[in-house]
Amino acid sequence: MCPFCDEAEESVEHLFTACVVVVRVWTAFSVWCNISPLILFDFKDILEIHKFIKRSKKEEKIIHGLAMIASWCIWKERNEVVFSQKRCNPQDIIGEMKSRGFAWMKNRASCKYISWTEWCKYPLYML
Ligand SMILES: [Zn+2]
User: Fold this and answer.
1) Residue 26 lies in a domain
2) Residue 6 lies in a domain
3) How far is the CA of 78 from the centre of ligand 1 (A)?
4) How far does residue 108's CA lie from ligand 1's centre (Å)?
5) How far is the CA of 124 from the centre of ligand 1 (A)?
6) Residue 48 within any structural domain of the chain
7) Which of 63, 67, 66, 88 is nearest to 76 (CA)?
8) What averages of pLDDT result for each successive group of 10 residues across the chain (127 residues)?
9) pLDDT of 31-67, one tens digit each?
10) Residue 17 Cα distances to 4, 22, 56, angstroms
């Protein structure tokens, strides 16, 4: 069973796109990035999120990177629930997505001086 909701059989599709917990994460993701609500059916859709939005190449690149980071955070939370008996919390996934995304962007030469406060409001503010 899914370690997040315990209501469906665990599968890649359920864990990353359909679970009630990750739907909350993707909703927060789309609000944060100011993009249309995401309709995801399988993991391939996550890999192609940036193709569904009509933005500049640079914005698409950041959104794609953040989708990869979000997926990593979902997988990490899943493993902590399964192996460390952590209590699942979508807010933890969202918080980690923002902080790991910030570290990723801040280590790029063109974004060395980005602000954590502004980043938390909108991750494309510096463009
Ligand atoms: Zn679930």
Assistant:
1) yes
2) no
3) 10
4) 35
5) 30
6) yes
7) 88
8) 96 97 97 94 94 88 96 98 95 97 90 94 94
9) 999 999 999 999 999 999 988 888 899 999 999 999 9
10) 12, 6, 25
Q: What is the pLDDT of residue 110?
A: 82
Token readout for 57 is 């190449």
Q: Token pair for residue 84?
A: 């460390």
What is the count of structural domains for the chain?
A: 1
Block residue for tokens 């399988």: 42
Residue ranges near ligand 1 (ion) with Cβ within 5 Å: 2, 4-5, 19
Give the type of residue at 8.
A
Cβ neighbourhood burial of 18 (10 Å; 0-12, 13-18, 19+): middle
Give the residue numbers spanning the domain of 30: 12-121
